[in-house]
Write a structure and sequence with these properties.
By secondary structure, the chain is α/β, with parallel strands linked by helices. The chain folds into 2 domains: about 5-260, Vaccinia Virus protein VP39 (Rossmann fold); about 270-350. About 25% of the residues lie in helices and about 20% in strands. The protein is built from 10 helices and 16 strands. An 8-stranded mixed β-sheet has the order 1-10-9-2-3-5-4-6, with helices on both faces. A 6-stranded antiparallel β-sheet has the order 14-13-12-11-15-16. Helix 6 packs parallel to helix 7. The longest helix is centred in the first third of the chain and has 18 residues, at about 60-80. It starts with a strand and ends with a helix. The mean pLDDT is about 90.
Length: about 350
């Protein structure tokens, strides 16, 4: 599998040549089909450098839909069953892309609003200022295992759950790549946006593919974060810019700084193990939520409550009338007669092992 390279050519042709189920993440920033008519000028009569590139020109909606269907199908083929796809768009195209995405069997996990903190104004004053774009995050198969570094995103958001609205400025200043004083690419995305996408849904060493590579933002960020990457781009000028840009990226040597800040997976401890190790005894009473509601522990790790017999979770649900994590609700009396949560016994088993 060729990685860490920009592949020059048509994305659908090149995707068809890549191995099936070989990619962990696809990030796609396809043509938006903006359908702009005529030039746009600022109040001082300077022309706006809008998206009028040939690659964003389609003769009809039907042609755009067919193009979208073909590249999404090609991406689905190379995506691992555990992989996910991100696609970004504006109101011009994202609803059509989303429909085709679902029709092809992808399952949408989230839609993310990229709220631009410094959007371009609506110069004609005829509409609301378009201050956001939408990202769709989808998995290849509904219910399949996929990577989501939830805790890392929570840490990045000051220990609060990361929400689906991301406030990030558009690409300006030194980050905006220019050639002879003009933008190298009209729709260059900020590295901060790609960093959040890649950090949230991949791990170091995973393969990130971008079928519309442009000036290589995805590859530059992937390399910085020690992910492998593949870029596909048909414009030779963009290819040259991307290769030079990514060549200059040098991640630090300490690989540990790129690992996601996820909580370690704790070893599973079956409730019966507390009985087997003698921490609880058959016939001992447990108390539900420190109340005068008790159940008796059996030798095989079940509880007996009235005429019912079942796990700590099942009996707890029966008592509470709601789903119940028994580890959080059952208590035992310690040697001093003080009620303690059975969770402390589970932690003791983990520490001893």
């Amino acid at each position: 599998m060729i990685t860490d390279q920009v592949l020059e050519g048509d994305c659908i042709d090149i995707l068809s040549s890549l191995p099936e189920k070989s990619v962990d993440l696809v990030f796609a920033d396809p043509p938006y089909n903006l359908q702009l008519r005529g030039d746009l000028y600022r109040p001082n009569m300077t022309r706006v450098d809008a998206v009028t590139d040939e690659w964003d020109q389609f003769t009809s909606i039907e042609e755009y839909d067919d193009f979208t269907r073909r590249w999404l199908s090609a991406c689905r083929r190379v995506l691992k069953d555990t992989g996910t796809l991100w696609v970004i768009g504006s109101y011009h195209n994202i609803y059509r892309v989303g429909t085709i995405l679902m029709n092809l069997g992808y399952w949408i996990l989230n839609d993310i609003v990229w709220a631009k903190t410094n959007p371009l104004p609506n110069l004609k004053g005829t509409r609301f200022t378009n201050a956001h774009e939408t990202l769709l995050w989808a998995q290849k198969h509904q219910g399949a295992r996929y990577t989501f570094n939830y805790h890392a995103m929570k840490v990045a958001n000051e220990d609060v759950q990361m929400r689906s609205i991301w406030e990030i400025p558009i690409c300006t200043g030194a980050e905006r790549i220019a050639i002879n004083g003009r933008k190298a690419h009209t729709t260059q995305k900020p590295e901060a946006l790609l960093a959040r996408v890649i950090l949230s849904s991949t791990n170091p060493g995973d393969i990130v593919l971008d079928p519309f590579f442009g000036t290589g933002t995805t590859g530059a960020v992937a390399k910085k974060l020690r992910r492998r990457w593949i870029g596909i781009e048909r414009d030779p000028a963009y290819v040259n810019v991307a290769r030079q840009r990514i060549e200059a990226v040098q991640p630090v040597a300490d690989e540990s700084v790129y690992l996601p800040s996820n909580k370690p997976r704790l070893r599973r401890v079956p409730f019966v193990q507390l009985v087997e190790t003698g921490l609880l005894q058959p016939g001992q009473q447990l108390f539900f939520d420190k109340k005068n509601i008790s159940a008796v522990v059996t030798a095989d790790g079940a509880l007996i409550y009235q005429d019912a017999r079942g796990s700590i979770h099942k009996i707890g649900s029966q008592i509470s009338g709601a789903p119940c994590n028994g580890w959080e609700h059952w208590y035992f009396r310690d040697s001093n007669g003080v009620l303690q949560p059975i969770e402390v016994l589970r932690q003791q088993v983990r520490c001893e092992s």
